[in-house]
Structure formats: C-alpha cells, structure tokens
Write a structure and sequence with these properties.
By secondary structure, the protein is α/β, with parallel strands linked by helices. α2 runs antiparallel to α9, α4 packs across α8 and α6 runs parallel beside α7. The radius of gyration is 22 Å and the shape is globular. Keywords: Aminotransferase, Plasmid, Pyridoxal phosphate, Transferase. It comes from Gemmobacter fulvus. Belongs to the class-III pyridoxal-phosphate-dependent aminotransferase family.
Amino acid sequence: MSTDLMPNRYRPGEAQLPQREAALIARRDGVLGASYRLHYRRPVHFLRGEGMWLYDPDGRAYLDFYNNVPSLGHCHPEVNAAMAEQAGRISANTRYLEPRLVDYAERLVATFPPELDRVVFTCTGSESNDLALRIARLVTGNEGVIVSNYAYHGTSAAVAAVSPNLGDAVMLSPNVRMVTLPGPAGIPDAQAADYFQAQVRAAITDLNRRGIGVAALLFDSIFSSDGVWVDPPGFIAGGVDAVRAAGGLVISDEVQPGFGRTGAHMWGFERHGVVPDLVTLGKPMGNGFPIGAVVGRHAAMDRFGTTARYSNTFAGNTIGIATADAVLTILQRDQIPQNAFAMGLRLRAGLERLAKQRPGIRAIRNAGLFFGVDMGTESMAPAARRAMAQDVVNALRDDGVLVSTTGANEDALKVRPPLICQAEHVDLFLAAVDRVLIRIGTARP
C-alpha cells in the first residue's frame, strides 16, 4: 500500500512553474491549512468550465475525464438557471412548507426500489454517511461497522473513523472491521461471492465475540477507492444476507456510483441485485451545488426520526432542491444513464485495443463511465507500477487531459468523465492515452 496520502500531488521544488502560478501557490500556502493539496506535479490553474472542458487563464482547454461531481458537465446552463432563479426568489429551510421540496422528494424516491420510500436531506456525502451510521446504530443498538479495506466514506469525525483510505494517521474506530475484496485478493470470479461472504462472516463473529455487535455493512457499490472492483455483479449478496441475519443494516454509499454513472442502472447497488436498508447520496446530486440525502426503508427512518433529533439548517434548502430537481429532470429527459452505458462500452473497447498494442495497460475494470485501469506489467514491482501510473497521469495533464489514480497501491488510473461525454471526447481521450504511453517508453518494439 502506498504510504503517500495523495501520490498525484504537487511537491514544492519538483517542477519549474511559471511565475504566475508560483506566486499564487506561495499566497495559498501562506493562508490555507496544511491539509490542502494540489493535483499534479505542475498544478493546473482554471478560471472557467463548460461541458467536458476546463480552461486555464491563457484559454487552453483541458478535457475533464476525472470530475464526477459535475456529472452533467461543468456549468450546465439549465442547472445554473434553476439555481439562480430560486436564489432570486427565496432561500429557506425545511421547517417551512414548500411544495418543491415534496415534489422533488417524491420524484427522487420513485427512482429507487419500492422498499426505499423515505428521504432525509443533507448537504454533503459525508453528512449522508454520518447520518446513516447514526440511524443504523440507533435502530440496531449495536456499534460495529464493516467496510472494505481501502474504503473512503467522508470527512466528518464519524465517517473518517470508518475510512481506511485516509491513511494511518487517521485512527480507525475500534468498532470497525475491514474486509478484503475478492478482486484485489486474486480470487476467481466463480469463488468471489463465497470469499466475500466468508470475510463478512468473520468480521461479524469478531464483533459479536467482543460484545460490539453489527450496526452496518457500509459499502461503496463500485468500490471506487479500492480500485474500482465492480465484478462479478452480485458478489456482495451473501455478505449482505449475513449482516442482516446478524441484526445489522446495509448501507450503500452511492455518492460516486449513483445517478446513472454505472450506465445500466440508476444506482450502483442495483448491479448486485440487492436492496439496501439505507442509501447515501452526495456530490453529483446537485451537479456541484452542495446537497446530499439518505434514502431508506421507512421502518428504520421512522424509528430514528421519532426518537432522535436531526436538525440541519441548510440541508434541503430551496436553492439546493431546485438545483437537484433540474439535475434529475435532465438525467431522465436526456437519457443520461443510457449515454453513460454506451460511452462506457466505447471507452472500454478503445482501452482494450490499446492494451493489445501497449504493455503499459495491465487490466481494465468498469461499470458505465467509471473505470479503473491498472498500469504496469505483472513482472513490475508495486512501486514501479505506482510510478508508471503517476507518470501517465502527469503526462496526460501536460497533454490537456485530466485523470487521477486509485487503489491501495495507487497504480490504477481513475477515469470518470462527466456523464454527458460523447464519442468525440472518448476518442480524444484514447488518442491522448496512446500518445502518452508511447512518450513514456512503453510501446512494444
């Protein structure tokens, strides 16, 4: 596992920077907290965005194949118009009657299986996961949480404590148990479900033996921080059943895979044929405007709501609801998930062609428009694979294309373009990857 919390980042002195950017970094370092990081060895400086593109002060365009937050593209005019129109009328909280809040809640819940029929709004995905854990712990009377061993679920104290991805300096809760995914463990697909179920059962046994009990299995249904381990579909089902049998709830973190990113489904958990007890939403819900939610079964939601207080002034505010409503309208009207599915097929086919021509691509995993692309060869040491992935990411940045890395070794490219991606963008990206692989010396003789 990489010990660097953010390998794809700027380090002072690593690269020569133009005076304009160097001066801005110096000012930034003089006022912002030390936890802030900049992407890329040579940080990018953007002034505006439009659709699939971001633009620097000199007008150079960068193709964005990384940002999943603006899932409908940067500065979508319809979304921005809805946001501005509501801001010009009223910004109010959920303690006042407002029909659009109810309208949107009904529309959102209708996209889920019928068992998931209640929603509570939040401002961020971190707040959503924090609230979901509170609900699970109250309803079950237990404290234990099971997560994958490189999971990331947010930044609040409660969810940081269940996020191994944040590094050794962020202490995990003693009530957390981590499970290994079958993919990174090298388990064949035919044995993946049994392997995952066995991992979960072992975690349950340990939690029960220590008197902690199981409150929840919390998973990102595309396992994005673990390296995008999406297959085989359904491999988590036995683990889900085991947690329920032990009295725990099942929480699907849909902050990254949700809202159609997986293409074939609106929600990532649907690929696995399971229905969670709670589902957490965030980032893409407002195309960048801060709004999130927890959607769940009414029994758990009502039990929590009638016995515990959850007051979040800004959550579900009228501007956020108007923005999210516009996002959902566009997703459904313009068949955005279907486009994600089609473009995912095109991108995968192109990457598979490149993998036959260039030894630098070791494996490709995806669901819709979320890809993990392993770099390096089987014979390379983990450090060499990680270094190669960083070289590719930074060379693409220099070529005007944005991606990042993921996985425990940070040797997989994380590719997740806005869902409005078209064939021309896929082809531009593939051409850039091909140029970069040749440039860094991985072309076959």
